[in-house]
Recover the amino acids of this structure.
């Protein structure tokens, strides 16, 4: 019998390349980031700064209508990638309301639709 492969990720991820701003509650300035993949449980971003694991932050993504999406999340890891000189950080969604869940679902849906086209 073949052993089952264990995976930490519950949901599929979709590759994206989306610029975003990271707002951290204890920092006055925002951090510029790039979202590189997204799924139902969270996203991976790249930045020049290491992010504190466990910190709650907001990822702000610009939209065509001028109103940015704000996605609240928790930093799960932040690892230096020597080949790029950037940090890869995992953000697990931490919506505070049903409305925030709908924003996440709409953003993910738009990413999936763009990939199909």
């Amino acid at each position: 019998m073949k052993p089952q492969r264990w995976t930490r990720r519950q949901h599929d991820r979709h590759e994206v390349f989306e610029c975003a701003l990271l707002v951290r509650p204890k920092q006055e300035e925002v951090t510029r980031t790039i979202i590189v993949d997204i799924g139902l449980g969270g996203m991976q971003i790249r930045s020049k700064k290491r992010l504190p694991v466990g910190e709650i932050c907001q990822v702000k993504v610009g939209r065509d209508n001028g109103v940015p999406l704000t996605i609240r999340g928790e930093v799960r890891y932040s690892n230096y990638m020597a080949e790029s000189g950037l940090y890869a950080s995992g953000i697990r969604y931490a919506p505070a309301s049903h409305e925030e869940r709908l924003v996440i679902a709409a953003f993910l849906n738009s990413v999936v639709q763009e990939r199909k086209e």
Summary: The chain has one helix and six strands.
